[in-house]
Design a protein that fits this description.
The protein has 11 helices and 13 strands. The protein is of the alpha/beta class. It folds into 2 domains: 194 residues, D-Maltodextrin-Binding Protein, domain 2 (3-Layer(aba) Sandwich), CATH 3.40.190.150; 114 residues, D-Maltodextrin-Binding Protein, domain 2 (3-Layer(aba) Sandwich).
């Protein structure tokens, strides 16, 4: 009798989640983008949002909530009702770097989000000013080792700052870090020769490399990028551990029913295979992925651990949010 009562109680408890999944989505969805409009993150959200609206037959609103190193928008979703109607366009800073660079972060990336799918990634280019007497990546490393501390590297974000520090560790060289608030001023100073080196996504640096004002030494993935097939991969030079990408994903608040997560993943994965989406992403130098939630969760944990280790090795001191 007691077993039957427990079984009945469990069945009743499961009814709301099951019913919600069967009717999902019954109203408009919102994708919060914690970055300004116009960037790769925004383009990804709007591309996916349009396809979700078509597939679900419900409006999908892209809500740009930029500010405080993506913390404002990220916290909104972490505190949202876990019903699948509020989603976050997440990336490396949101899911790993902010926890490393800030103290008292108002959300926990590993605890407060349910990964839905890894949408895409895009490698970085390691580029130097054209006046530097180095024809390729090993040549630059050789020259940098001969003049420790002379060269500088710029960063447009906390992610590319750590990317530059990882490059220093792997290459065994010493460069001075120069921080910037965004890619545009960093690229301008690289073009003008005010800094020696910059690591930034393919889409931002490739046009300038093609113009000859900067020299693209390598892409930060094992294979060459289809977007810049003439630029070698770092692995072609025998280096290891420089896999770094600007990746994008969709997460929901923790507690979102797995059936809803699976439904979202299936629809997004389908969208990422459509010809018009593939064409649009290729123009941005972006590779679509559509990883399922389990693989995306494992990837996020790996990224978190990896960059935490880099921060430890360089003795990075986190600062309070808003400082």
């Amino acid at each position: 009798m007691r077993i039957r009562l427990l079984a009945a109680a469990l069945a009743v408890a499961l009814v709301p989640a099951t019913a919600a999944a069967q009717t999902y989505p019954a109203r408009a969805l919102r994708i919060v983008v914690p970055f300004p409009a116009g960037g790769v993150a925004d383009i990804m959200a709007r591309t996916v949002g349009q396809k979700l609206a078509e597939g679900f037959g419900q409006p999908v609103i892209v809500d740009n909530r930029a500010g405080a190193s993506a913390i404002i928008g990220s916290e909104i979703v972490a505190r949202a009702t876990p019903d699948g109607y509020t989603l976050l366009l997440a990336n490396l800073p949101v899911m790993a770097i902010n926890s490393i660079t800030f103290t008292k972060l108002p959300y926990d990336p590993l605890r407060d989000y349910a990964p839905v799918t890894m949408l895409s990634d895009q490698p970085y280019i390691i580029a130097i000013h054209a006046s530097i007497p180095a024809k390729d990546l090993p040549d630059f490393i050789r020259v940098a080792k001969q003049q420790p501390g002379k060269f500088t590297f710029g960063s447009a974000s906390s992610s590319t700052m750590l990317a530059g520090e990882l490059f220093k560790l792997v290459a065994g060289i010493d460069m001075t870090h120069v921080p910037y608030k965004g890619s545009t001023p960093a690229i301008n100073d690289l073009l003008g020769g005010q800094i020696t080196l910059l690591i930034d996504p393919v889409i931002t640096l490739a046009p300038h490399a093609a113009g000859g004002r900067i020299r693209a030494l390598a892409v930060t993935q094992v294979q060459r990028s289809k977007a810049v097939p003439n630029v070698p991969s770092y692995s072609e030079y025998g280096l290891k551990g420089l896999d770094m990408t600007s990746w994008q994903g969709i997460v929901a608040p923790t507690g979102t029913p797995q059936t809803v997560v699976d439904r979202l993943h299936a629809e997004i994965a389908r969208a990422l295979k459509q010809p018009d989406v593939l064409e649009r992403l290729a123009a941005q130098g972006v590779t679509p992925l559509g990883l399922p939630s389990t693989e995306f969760r494992a990837f996020v944990k790996k990224e978190f651990d990896r960059w935490s280790d880099v921060a430890r090795r360089i003795k990075l001191k986190p600062t309070p949010v808003g400082s």
